[in-house]
């Protein structure tokens, strides 16, 4: 294999790692995938260090160690599955290196998210379901349905505008609590607490919490602690948003 | 009847979260199923033992177990199934109550709620990790047997 090919293999590993980390995969899985891909390209002395904000990959001499920065993190499980599929096909020689790299670039560009209206509908339905699961009153379901949808709309819009995640979550929680309060005030709802809990559920940082614990247990203390901090801040933002409405 | 409704609603909630987290389209049904399995185990055990911490542990254990089976079957990362499945178990109500009592300056009640939320989330994490460790142990011993056969 030529030097150019090796450089491409290194870039391919880093791109796969970045895509997975941005989509919210577990740290140990990213390291595992990158090392597996590198080994199929005959880079045996590979060492990687993955954190939620950057990846360092050292392919061993004579190649240079490379660093890639991760600027944004979201939850996009389909992307995790797609990148995982590419690395699987690369290791079974179904894809050549060029094909795999091209496919990864395609995945980076493609927008595979569900349409926004469907996400909002899903959040609304999930909120209404949680109201029932938490033993709420049936007649409160419409209130929870709307509160959940409004929460997701606000978190998306404010995040687009400000790019500050915690602020977006704060505003979203605030709007959920306000909608619930208005519904109860107008006698369309009875149990304020249950409506707010249901409506706030789509904002809960579930992936962050599970990943933080998984990473801590796997010995990735850096990523585990920083993901835990992110989850804690998110929970705090939600709590503060609801508290602001409740305190009036 | 009540159990049936709970099953349906937990399925819908978990599948809804599958959409919010952008799980692959074909896997949405299985996301919902994982969430339903976890929630049903949780609520049945919660009724019989009355201890939400143990019930959450068992629920998370089942979520990880079922998620792992699906992950092996569809050759996708396990995280796709477990994330949506774990959401119904998250102690949202307890955390909310803790926060509400903090706001009302009733700190003693708030701390007891917060402790419970902390215990439940710890139990969920333990359930996930235990299931994974046990699955890996079984998987390893199977692999050894297989390679022994080949020799």
Characteristic key phrases:
heterodimer; A: 248 residues; mainly alpha; 2 domains; 3-stranded antiparallel sheet; 69% helix; 6% strand; elongated; B: 151 residues; 6 helices; membrane (chain B); ThrE_2 (chain B); cell membrane (chain B)
Poorly predicted parts of chain B: none
Give average pLDDT of chain B, whole number: 87
Give the helix/strand class of chain A.
mainly alpha
Largest sheet of chain A: 3 strands, antiparallel
The helicity of chain B comes to: over 70%
State the distance separating the first and last CA atoms of chain B.
55 Å
Look at the helices and sheets of chain B and give the structural class. mainly alpha
Strand order of the largest sheet of chain A: 1-2-3
Number of helices of chain B: 6
Radius of gyration of chain B: 18 Å
What this model shows, in words?
The complex is a heterodimer of chains A (248) and B (151). Chain A has ten helices and three strands; from the N terminus they run ααβββαααααααα. Chain A is mainly alpha-helical. Chain A has a three-stranded antiparallel β-sheet. The longest helix of chain A has 26 residues, at 221-246. The radius of gyration of chain A is 22 Å and the shape is elongated. The model of chain A has no long low-confidence stretch (mean pLDDT 87). With 151 residues, chain B is mainly alpha-helical. Chain B has one domain (2-150). In chain B, α1 (2-20) packs across α4 (79-86), α2 (28-49) runs antiparallel to α3 (52-74) and α3 runs parallel beside α6 (107-150). Chain B is globular. The model of chain B has no long low-confidence stretch (mean pLDDT 87). At the A-B interface, α3, α5, α8, α9 and α10 of A face α1, α4, α5 and α6 of B.
